[in-house]
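User: Predict the complex.
Assistant: Input components as received:
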Amino acid sequence: MDKARVLIVDDEPGIIEMLTMRLEACDYQVISASDGQEGLDKARTEKPDLIILDLMLPKIDGYKVCRMLKFDERHKQIPIILFTARAQESDIKLGEEVGADAYITKPFEPDILLAKVDQLLKK
Amino acid sequence: MKLIFGFILMALIILAIVISIGSFLGLILVKPILKLRDATEKVALGNLDYKVEIKTNDEIEELAGSFNLMLDSLKGTFTTIDKLNNEIALRKKTEENLNKSEERYRLLFSESRDAVMLLLPDNGFLSGNPAAIEIFGCRDEEDFKSRSPADLSPEFQPDGSRSSDKAREMIMLAVEKGSNLFEWTHRRVDGREFIATVLLSRLRISGETLLQANVRDITERKRILEELRQKNIALEKLDQLKNDFISVVSHELRTPLSITKEGISLVLDGVAGSINLKQSKVLTTSKDNIDRLARIINSLLDISKIESGRVELRKKVVDIEVLIKTIVASFQIMAREKGLELRVNLPKGQGLNLYVDEDRMIQVFTNLIGNSLKFTEKGHVDVSLEQRENEVEFTIGDTGIGIAAEDLPKVFTKFLQFGRSPGGGEKGTGLGLSIAKGLIELHRGKIRVESELDKGTKFIFTLPKYHENENAREHIEDAVEAAFKSNTHLTLAVVTFSYSDKIKDTYDGLAEDLFKTIKAQLYRGKDLVLKYPREFFIIMRDSDKNSALVVQGRIEQALRSYFETVNLSKDIKINFGLAVYPEEASNYQELVNKARLV
């Protein structure tokens, strides 16, 4: 069976670097994008199995990226984990509204993140 | 001789007779005169009521009569004089009082720090006290009297109206209503302007209408008020800035913190190659401290949110006993490692429902239990609850080092970690207890502390009890508040049933099924249905009319098919009322009224 492919969209190279290393160690294949536009493009062309999406992104913010994918019949089945430093209740609510599957706040526990990824991919 | 003797005898007899007559006459004549003399003496002594009684039938009786008349008249005169004297005394007293009062008023007028003046309604000053002359910068009273109210004002008032027009209007109002208090901009003779409060009072003096004006310069007061207002705005801005600063910094710190933490974790987990024990120890310490930093940042964010009122409670019905057991279980390892006994003492029952924000409650209990474990070296930590009439009281007690009496009042002060040196373990932020207090108060509860040095500490807090049937108001008000804050909609549905007599007696048994049927149609966790003897309340947060209508359709459909299965379709009818915040109603009462009416 092919390795599951995870798309990381984050404008922080450090986050991409660390997450890539962690996910690859757990036998996932990782692709990345550093702004909302690139993230949207890669989600559409590469068709990843799961997306880890930062909220505060250049060009198109994470909520918009999430909504555009979730309201699109062809891509709405891709699970999306919103990944952000913002943890206000209203942000979480907004996340629910745009159809995100999970929400993880920074700084994150690797175990929790991996468990979520695992759980969403099994569905 | 005989003749001479006879003559002498005769003479003697005649003499005797004469003497007798004389003394008889003397007696008759002298007595009334003596009476008169006595009377005169008595009258002279002031006895005017005395009456002379002489019945001699002669001039003396007449004299006595005249005397008595004279006495009467004298008495009359004296009474009049008395009366006059009394009157004079009275007038004198009145005059004295008048003088005193006039003096007092004169002083009031002349010494008053307020400018006081009398004027005729048609704009002429009659008089002004020294303060009035001074406030307008006039030379003397003559100078003052030569000016009119409009002369002592700028051409226009701050509201743009012409001073002379507005002055007339104010005076007319005072004449009509009896008094008129207003703010006025005056202009002194030297041209300087000042803001004053003016009180015009109508006086009526012998048919004439006058106005008394009390003028007080409030320029300084206004200036100070304005200064205070500005300072207050600046302080509020500063406070906002502080909260924004904390919020932004906290968020900004999270990304680098995440990267660093994940980097260390990756190395520690061996993902970046194997490491030796020494390296692992160093990295573990680093990671622990990054976790600590993250806790501090979270606490800072929490406290700034609590202080600025930006905490949004996500309340729901929570079994607090289950929650306590779970939290306590998570602390058992830590307690055992310290050799402490961590005990839970809950009343035996089927759980206890409270209407709270579960995550925030976890935070409160975690802070308090963690705090107790931290400051206890031997013995035990007890978590217990007790039900009171309207609230539930929780106690977290320990046998730890205790808090000195002088430190007790400071326990909930943020950033304060006094004298207590924790026995190792996680370092605190000095914010945990203030956060717990803030969160408890947001839930309309109270917290207090009891402690004795070297004996132990007890944190006792209360939360309001939850009565499902009495909580509609609280639920709806919370939902309205949340909708207001997040600028979203809220829909309240009231569902009632009209039914035939046939099932009148069985309705109560049916109600539970109806409740379950309705509940099953609410897919979102934030929707809530409350059951009452005669109606059901459905609170749909974040729902405008259209989405509520969708839910209504679903519920009605489900209810109808339920009625079909129990063969009651003909006997029961559904009434569904909706009210939407903010379009149709703006508070609890309006929502309920509107939804019931439909």
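The longest strand of chain A covers residues 5-9.
Let me know if you want any component modeled separately.
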